[in-house]
Amino acid sequence: MAKRPGIFPTFFISGFECSTFLWKDKKRRNLIQETQHDRFAEKDYELLRKLGIAVSREGIPWPMIDTAGEYDFSSIDPMIESMQKQKILSIWDLCHYGYPDDLDPFTDAFTQRFADYCRAAAAYVTTRLPGPYFFTPINEITFFSFCAGEWGWVAPYKKTKEERFKLRLALCKAAIAGVKAIREVVPEARMVHIDPLVQVVAPKDRPDLAEAAHHETYVDTFLAWDIIAGKEHPEFGGSPEILDIVGANNYSFGQMEYREQGPHAALPPDDGRIKPLCDLMHLVWDRYQRPMIIGETSGMKDGREDWLRDVMDESLAAVEAGIDLHGVCLFPAVDMPDWHTGEWLHNGLCDLEPENGLLKRVECEPYIAELRRWQKELNRVTSLDEDPFNDPVELQDVVDAAHRLKKQPDKNWH
After folding, report:
1. Can you list the domains of the chain with their CATH numbers?
2. pLDDT digit string (tens) for 242-280?
3. pLDDT digits 0-9 by tens, 68-118
């Protein structure tokens, strides 16, 4: 019996890029296909099992499954079969920037259709896989609102701040309806609401933008979570139980200098205005007091192992400070293409190399070695046993490691 049982069967989590947006060229993208995860699902989950990871964020591609309210979930059957075989638990991502062509996200019809789809998706996976069950209704509502509501990268291609705010409200309303629909099918289902950790600062020569940058950091970043938690727009029906688990994503480009037009500019790693990850996590914890995970984190290319080391140092500093952290997600498990250029980012546990029309999985050995080091430091498994679900993860081991190592927040990241 665990002294302090974790929510998930392993502390380290992973996942697979699953975006299904309509891109600027009006063409539908399907990153599950582009990375060939649909073809290599069993091999991909076998990798996670070998790495001691029993939890994976996995997408259900709403636009490909829902045709005018009629559903065909057969495209996720290879993932379900592989999860059964490899005993991997999924956090099912139900809307990853993509929705059916015939829907307008600003309408009540969108909310109703999303709720109906969530209900159907929950029924499909819960009759084919054992519990427990986890869902992310709409991934990164705040970022989705930027790239679809203000920058015009993806549908619905809006390009003003006002349309971004309006889209965010619509997505929050749909997400809350989706949670309620899922729990009609499986009342004990857990929710993980994912959004980025962000800090925005004014340019050094533009002190007049300090107020706007501060608002984006301390108000705008949290509005979607606030609505889902019922702190704002209570008429949408949010509550702490609907927010449930907070998934905070952490990337180097999440700390930015304010720009009045278009995306903000990422701060260089030696910029003195960078805040420690632990401090950003505290903002979330103090606001919601809900269980947390790092929902996505990964370095790029040769920086992957250094980035993981920094993230773990900061995460243990957060645990030492009393934050209820239940996992760190190394995302993605396999490489993904840059949306704009199509070039491989080299940010996964495996790189992808073309070979006779297929994408060969090539493990990033330094990144994996750093994962192994932390698994041993935290007394975590380095490979899965026959049944990774027979005991909950012992979070007390993580807490003990935080007490032993006494990591301190550090803004000097690699």
Report:
1. 12-405 (3.20.20.80)
2. 999 999 999 989 999 999 999 999 999 889 999 999 999
3. 999 999 999 999 999 999 999 999 999 999 999 999 999 999 999 999 999
Whole-prediction pTM value?
Answer: 0.97
CB 86 within 8 A of CB 388: no
What residues form DSSP beta bridges with 114?
Answer: none
Amino acid at 379: N
Tell me the HSE value of 93 on the side-chain side, using a 13 A CA sphere: 27
Find, among 393, 414, 192, 384, the residue nearest to 312 by Cα: 414
Which amino acid does the sequence have at 100?
P
